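Lab notebook, bench 4. The sequencing result for the construct came back, and we need a structural model before the next group meeting so we can plan mutations. Quick request posted to the team channel:

Model the 3D structure of this chain.
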Amino acid sequence: MSAFAIASTAFVVLEYVVKIVAVGVVPENRRPSSSTAWLLLILFLPVVGVPLFLLLGSPYVHRRRAAIQAEANRLLAQGTESIPPVPETAAISPELAGIAELSRSLTSLPMVTGTNHGVVMDYEAGIDRMTRLVEGARESVHVEIYIMARDSTTEGFFAALEAAVRRGVRVRVLLDHIGSRKYPGFREFLTRMTEAGIEWHLMLPFLPLRGKARRIDLRNHRKLMVVDGVTAVMGSQNMIEASYGSPRNRKIGRRWNDITVELTGEIVSSLEAVFAVDWYSECGELIDVHTYRGLGDPGSESHLLPAVHEPVRAVGGEVNAVQLIPSGPGFRTEPNLRVFASLMYTAKRRLAIVSPYFVPDESVLAAITTAAHRGVSVELYVSEVADQFMVDRAQSSYYRALLDAGVRIFRYPAPEVLHTKCFLVDDACAVLGSSNMDMRSFGLNYEISLLATGGDIVEQVRDVIAEYAARSSVLDPAVWASRPLTRRYAESVMRLTSALQ
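Done. Here's the predicted structure in token form:
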């Protein structure tokens, strides 16, 4: 037998061995849709599929991070044992109380009270509000935002951080490495923070030459700020100008549309805890915060348990029952996915969902279409054209099933980008934060979402959605059915690639 024949035979045998092993390995701890996508790629294109799977296909986050999150959950559960399942002053339905308990069991964060100081949908006003809060800081400012860039819109915010350091405030900043590095002036931005005395770390850094290598598709997508442990801001907005530093975006009028909410009261402790865990995960420093009042020993190991603050009432502020839902690869139980789907099944009259990237898990798609089939008025708000080609085609592949179930799809007019992430269930509760309704947010991104009920946050989220409805057009099922075959093919391909997790 010639050398060529031997090599060819060995290659064929190796290919079949790889495929047989893949059938047994790939589906482990993975959704069926994801398993199918990976197996198709490996079986049909093993030269491409195997390296990609080894690089991106692990369903586990780094063991160290998972261990840190597990320990944080243990400490939080220990420190919140005596906090009631729902605030004693809140009138909550049994089914919603059950979902609050579900979320608590998944994240160790209880439903507490929080005073709302306004859901803001004006992009620049959201940044200005954060700037003013930093200007009033006395002890600490903790900022954790996926994308950060220093530009004409954000200059005032970063100048306020620098001024805070000069007057003795401890300023800590976390920003996602992959998410932020592509924007102009990234290295100079980091240098300026160092020179100003701002403590900063990259979240989930991919720096293999420095021994920091991991799955490059993991992101910390959270957006939050905590000032003095008393006031917090969270939402969907990144710290960058509204056109994301792109001259082309500015030329064609493409701007991102987001919402943020300012909070005081007990809920700030939950946000503080999330920041403390992420800070420790990146640099190993335990932030010196207090235990919950009356619970535990301040000198004990419970370093990650922040102080519960009394609700602060302000003009226009109203106390809500609220619960923070952190999620991400460090959690093995997908808290946002389980809580979101459970909430959707409680809808009786209306379910309104705003998500710029809508590539749902099977369970979420089933919850949405089931609600529509049982007579609930279901609305989905998306951008007319998503800012990412693959996402635009992948999410479009779900429209037929949604339309057939009776879901009304509202498309926010191009070229603007609807970047808000929120949804409303009847008039009972609202959810807002950083989490999209897509498989990336459910499985690959670190996210935070706020569940709110029994106060004015629900009303303000309803007003935000009403504003989006007024600006949007409703997708006509007949028009959608007539789209070209080439478009349908691209949608199917992108839907398949979206499941490669």
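The chain is about 45% helix and 20% strand.
Will bring this to the meeting.
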